[in-house]
Amino acid sequence: MLKLKPSPIQKVQWQLASDNSISVDIKRDDLLHSVVSGNKWRKLKYLLADAKDKQCSKIITMGGNWSNHLHAVAYAGKELGLKTTGIVRAHAEQALTPTLKDCELWGMELRFTTRKEYVEYREQKAWDFFHNNQPNSYWLSEGGFSELAIKGVMDIADEVDKHYDYIVVACGSGATLCGLAKAFPKSQIIGVAAFSGAEYLRDELTQHLGSNIDNWEIDTKHHCGGFAKTSKDLEDMIEELEQLNSFKLDPVYNGKAFLALQSRLKSGAFSKGKRVLMLHTGGIQGTRCL
Ligand SMILES: Cc1ncc(COP(=O)(O)O)c(C=O)c1O
User: Fold this and answer.
1) What does pLDDT average to in each consecutive run of 10 residues of the chain (290 residues)?
2) Gap from CA of 170 to ligand 1 centroid (Å)
3) InterPro entries from the entry (predicted)?
4) Minimal CA–CA distance to 51: which of 143, 147, 140, 141?
């Protein structure tokens, strides 16, 4: 297994936050690894260990043209001696994106699929989904959503010793949000959807977490028009934060999480003295799509 050190927690320099007497820290999971960074390593570590325990020699998973998940799985597979297959929602005749070129370079077999088939794959959650024709394979559903992925995210709690009133994180499948909600029962977790039409996640995650775990919410208003779309506000805010701080923010996920925080700070949604933790989930490779 890859052995990674805990990621640091840093203070975010941000005039808007200090003007509102809110302290904002950032957990730099983007620094966990140069490729398998951010929530990718958190979500994959127990899944890959499980694949090895089950004597599986191949990981099959799915993602889009610029998927951080496919990118991380391809690299981790190479490092751990596992074959990998990526089912990609794209046409085979389209030129490969830099993300998919990396995946191929690291030995991932790419299989292109139609939108309709992709949606069907999305429904499949069981690890042995491909066993009929590929008995040694281990299936990872989109974004790796699973109990083991959530368990991996929960390990973040071992690295955080202060109390935070709010933890803000970008949201795709919601696995990272679920892990945080379970691991930090005394914090309110704000998941910021990176794409439009994410309202369904509220029901889906409620079903998954059960009604006893209710310290979370999904912000569906800061996707800037859809997945990988940006806005002037988003770009200006990222520029301002990057000038004052040592981190980079991808506009696809983490930029939107900060945008949601910015609008809460501006509207006075948090009372003075509250403490906020941003989880940096990595994803810088994905900015090549912009
Ligand atoms: C950089 C980044 N941040 C956040 C997310 C969302 O994570 P989750 O699918 O666990 O909600 C993703 C997608 O997996 C991602 O690539």
Assistant:
1) 86 98 98 92 96 97 95 96 95 89 97 94 94 94 94 97 98 97 98 96 96 97 95 97 97 97 97 98 86
2) 6
3) ACCD_DCysDesulf, TrpB-like_PALP, TrpB-like_PALP_sf
4) 140
